Amino acid sequence: MNNNIPNEITTKIIESFNKAGSANINTLQQVRDVQVVLGSLLQHETKRLEKKLGKKNLRVQQVQASIKCNQTITRDLEVELEIAKIRVPEVDSKDSLIHGRIVDENRRGWVNLVVYFADVRGNIIHPLGKAKTEVSGYYALPMQAETIKEAAESIKEGVLVVVCNSKGELIYRHKDPVMLVGGDRHLVEIVLKRSDLTPPPCDTPSVPIQVLSLDSPTQLTVNQAGTFTGTVNKDATQPLNYRWDFGDNSTASTLTATHSYTKPGDYTVTFVASNQNSTDRQSKTVTVLEQAAPPLIENLTANSRNPQVDTPVYLNAIVQGDAPVSYSWDFGDGTTSLDTAPSHIYQQPGTYNVTVTVANAGGVNKRSLSLTVSQLPTDVWVARGRVVDEQNRGLGGLIVSLFDYDCVFDNRLGTTQTDANGEFILTYRTQDFRDLLEAKPDLYLKILDNQGNTLYSSKSAIRCGASRVEVFEIRIQESDQTS
C-alpha cells in the first residue's frame, strides 16, 4: 500500500468536503475516523521499520512523511467537521446579522471568546447584544430592526466587532466599521494567535472614568418623555460602559437616553459610567406629576364684533385647564400676540378671523371668531392712548377727559376711564367742536384720579389741527400719583 498521498489529492478531498455542508456530517466523521486509524497504523509501521532498518532508512522516512500528510488531512477534516456543525440563525428579512468565525492560524476555532459591538470611538453598544464563540469559533449576533433604529445615533458611523477573552479583557477590535442597515447580512472572519488571547501589558497607565455632569429634567408629567444625558472625561481609557437607572426598574446603556414614567412620584435617576479599572456615578431627582388636564376654551369674546378702523378691539378667552397655560393670538391681518387678553387695532376695513391657540402640558386647543372692520364715519374723530407709570405698567381706573382748546372757553369732547392695561379711547363728532367753522380741533387732555385730583395735563402741548385719529402715550410720575 502506498501511504504517500499527494498534496493535490488532499486538496481535492478537502474541497469536496467543503461543499458537503451539514448534510454530510456523518460522512465527515467516518472519513476522519478512517484517517485516525490510518495514522495509528502508520505510527505502528514506523516503529517496526525503525527497529528493522534504522531511523535513517529511506523507507522509514517515507512512512514518516505519510504520517505528516495524514495529520494534515485529519486536522483539516476536523476543521470542516466543526464548520459543518454550524447552524446559522434564521432572522427576519428586516433584521440584521453579523456572524463569522474566530480561529487560529490552523483554522481551528477559539471557544468561549465574547463578541460585542462598539462605536467608532470604542464605546460598547450594549443594546446590540453580545455572543460567545462555539467550539468551531463561530459567533452570531442577530439584531432586530427596532433595536437598530433605537441605536441609530450610536451606529450612524458604523460599528466595530470587538472581542474579549474569558476574563473580559479586550483582545481585538476590528479595524473596518460595518454599516448597519436593516436586512443586511455581514460575515466577519477573525484570525487570532494564541498570544493574542492575553492582552499585552500597557505602558500607558489607565485613565479612570469620571462623570462630569448629568443633564436631566427636574420635572415631568406622566407619560411625558424626558431626555437624559451624561458627560464623561474624554481621556478615559476605552472601552467605556454606561448604565442608567431611572428609579422605576427601567434602565438604559447609552450616553444619552429617553425615558418616560407611567406613575407620579419622585424618582432618583442614576447615571453610572465605567471602564476597565474604574466606575463613577451621579444622581438626580425627577418629580413626576399627574398628567395635566388639557385646556378648554369655554368662550371667546371681543368688545365689538364690528369695530372701526383705528379703534382698539379688546379680546378675551375664558379657558379651563391646568396651569401654566400659554396663549397665542392670530389677528388675521398678519400680526400676532402672546398676551393673555390682548387688544388690537386694524388699519384697513375688511372681515378678519381672530384665532386663539392655548396650550399646557396636557394638550392644545384653539377657537376662532370673525370681526367685520369698517371705516370711520366721515364725521367721527378718535382720541386713544395708554397711561403708564415709570416702569411702563398700565394704570387702570383713571379718569381721562378730552378738550378742544379755545381762547374763551374750552369744549369738553368726552370723558372715559382707563382699563386694567391703562388704555383708553374716546370718540367724538364734528358737531361737538365749539366752532363749527374750524376744520380740525385743537386737542389736549387731562388725567384725574378717583378723587378728582389732576395727575396730568397736556394743555401746555396742545395738538393743534388734530387729525382724525390721535394717539396719546402718557407717563405719570410716582410723585404725581401720591400728591
For the record, the CATH architecture of the largest domain stands as Sandwich
User: Given the C-alpha coordinates, what overall shape results?
Assistant: rod-shaped
Beta strand count: 30
Query: What's the CATH class of the largest domain, please?
Result: Mainly Beta
Q: What is the H level of CATH, i.e. the homologous superfamily of the largest domain?
A: Immunoglobulins
The DSSP helix count reads 6
Percent strand: 35-45%
Count of individual domains = 5
The average pLDDT value, as a whole number, equals 84
C-alpha end-to-end distance: 133 Å
Would you kindly provide a written description of the structure presented here, covering whatever features stand out?
There is one protein chain. With 483 residues, the chain is of the alpha+beta class. The chain folds into five domains: 78 residues; 102 residues, Sandwich (Immunoglobulin-like); 79 residues, Immunoglobulins (Immunoglobulin-like); 78 residues, Sandwich (Immunoglobulin-like); 103 residues, Immunoglobulins (Immunoglobulin-like), CATH 2.60.40.10. It is built from six helices and 30 strands. It has a five-stranded mixed beta sheet, with no helix packed on it. Strands 1, 4, 7 and 8 form a four-stranded mixed beta sheet that branches. Helix 2 runs antiparallel to helix 3.
